[in-house]
Design a protein that fits this description.
- The protein has helices at 15-23, 29-41, 55-64, 128-131, 140-154, 179-190, 210-219, 233-239, 248-262, 281-291, 316-328; strands at 8-9, 65-66, 71-77, 83-90, 96-106, 109-113, 117-119, 134-137, 166-169, 202-206, 223-227, 267-273, 296-302, 332-335, 359-362, 365-368.
- The chain is an alpha/beta fold.
- Strand 4 and strand 5 (96-106) form a beta hairpin.
- The chain binds S-adenosyl-L-homocysteine and iron/sulfur cluster (SF4).
Amino acid sequence: MTASAERTNLLGMTRPELEAFVGAFGAKPYRARQLLKWIYRRGESDFARMTDLAKDFRAELAARAEVTVPEIVADRIASDGTRKWLLRMPGATGSEQVIETVYIPEPGRGTLCISSQIGCALDCSFCATGAQGFNRNLTAAEIIGQVWLANRELGRDPDGERIITNVVLMGMGEPLANYRNVLPAMQLMMDDFGYDLSRRRVTLSTSGLVPQIYRLAEDCNVALAVSLHAPNDRLRDELVPINRKHPIAELLAACWHYLERQNGRSVTFEYTMLDGVNDRPEQARELARLLRGHDAKINLIPFNTFPGTEYRRSSPEAIRRFRDLLVQGGVMATVRRTRGDDIDAACGQLRGQVMDRTLVRLGSKLVRLAVRA
Ligand code: SAH
Ligand code: SF4
């Protein structure tokens, strides 16, 4: 997606930004609202077809602006209806990179799982995206552009409603490490003139960037999911390295603050089930003790394998037993259904095509630089 040098890409601009943009050539603020409706609600990218805009305004727009979306390089559908798009992005070093967006159909709702970065620098030990390293942050246009494209590709249901009812920031990347671009994209998802999704239908998943959780509590009201994966710091330090900087107690304090500040219902804690690593009964009891009495839900994710990993998925019995122990321990827990794994579209399998910029050559060795948010 390369916007031309002279023209500004309107995709990704929030309502106030768009008002300022059109205001600069004398247009009233309501023009920005009309534009938002055309771009997001109707999925239009051609100003000439925005028929209720005055002709001279359309001409001004055509000269100064454009709506540029990422390019689809592949489109695959899994046996369960899960659909994955590969999108081409220009890379930080001029190279071409590919990111992934996944659509998951379920009875009564359609969820779009979007990416926030090309790769991820946080290096969680069980994640395919982390294993690929990091290239760059996505822009706000590239983030909201995934929703735009999926809406265009999926069309409308027989009642004329949009197919996508929920958006989760659970694709490639750590959304809170790209706060500056993720925030406007989420605002557009919830803007009345944008996608008009309710705050419960936009979910941000983070591995635990504590300062940014506090910042989010001031700026935006979305559902929060936190990747916990371990009931104590010893194990979490190993699985989710950012824990060494922001340990569990600090992370949980940020979560409860977020709920209070945003008047939210609960925080969802994601817990990937790794055979023999974090799936033992005493670990379930420890986890229940940690979260009991709080507005917390646990979502157990069966581990999805990828080439090069040594982890294995916990057995269905171990997962069931773990869930039962959590529930007995007083915490709500569900097991996430694995979707789209035959096209590598399941949680943690998204790899795209990432040229790792954090690898440096030290003598004859390639070493990964620790890039921490
Ligand atoms: N970076 C964010 C969001 C993307 S990952 C985060 O970490 O929360 C979305 C979820 O998938 C996270 O809970 C992540 O821990 C989990 N996940 C990563 N790798 C996985 C794997 N191989 N199998 C199952 N879940 C995985
Ligand atoms: Fe990054 Fe999330 Fe994967 Fe960790 S689990 S490496 S934070 S994408």
